[in-house]
Amino acid sequence: MVKLIALYKQPEDKAAFDEHYFNVHTPLTQKIPGLRDMKVTKIVGSPMGKSEFYLLCEMFYDDHEALQEAMKTDEGKASGKDVMQFAGDLVTLMIGEDVDA
């Protein structure tokens, strides 16, 4: 299992961010072919107190090839375009694999 991870910094207007993220961006992303699961975590702080981060989204795919194919679809392109338009300055995207610890 491979995951695309989106980590968002604190937005200036949290209400506007949440409105767009949950009502526009999430439905777009959920339509991407090959997406097996999507988990969203709201960051509420850190052991040191406040956090510079606001939201973490993990999008799960069968493997790297499935992720790459998903990103080439119209739905994948629409999701990518949307995130860059509403949160391009806030988001960091990473690809990860679960490991046994």
Give structural notes.
By secondary structure, the protein is of the alpha+beta class. Helix content is 40%, strand content 30%. The chain contains three helices and four strands; from the N terminus they run E-H-E-E-H-H-E. Strands 2-3-1-4 form a four-stranded antiparallel sheet. Helix 1 runs antiparallel to helix 3 (74-87). It is globular. The two termini are 16 Å apart. The mean pLDDT is 97.
Would you spell out the secondary-structure blueprint of this structure?
Layout: E1 2-9, H1 14-30, E2 37-42, E3 53-61, H2 64-72, H3 74-87, E4 91-97
Antiparallel strand pairs: 1-3, 1-4, 2-3
Helix pairs in contact: 1-3
Protein traits:
single chain; alpha+beta; 4-stranded antiparallel sheet; globular; 101 residues
Distance between the termini: 16 Å
Note the total helix count: 3
Residue share in β-strands: 25-35%
Indicate the overall shape: globular
Structural class: alpha+beta
Number of strands: 4
The helix fraction, in percent, is: 25-40%
